Amino acid sequence: MKKHLLIVYSTQTGRTRRLVEAACTGAAELADEVEVRTLRAFDAGLDDLLWAEGLIVASPENFGYLSGAVKDFLDRTYYPAEGRTVGLAYAMLVSAGNDGTGAVRALERIANGYQWKRVADPVICKGEIDEVGIAAARELGQTLAAGIAFGVF
Question: Could you read off the pLDDT of 24-46 as tens digits, one per residue?
Answer without folding.
Answer: 999 999 999 999 999 999 999 99
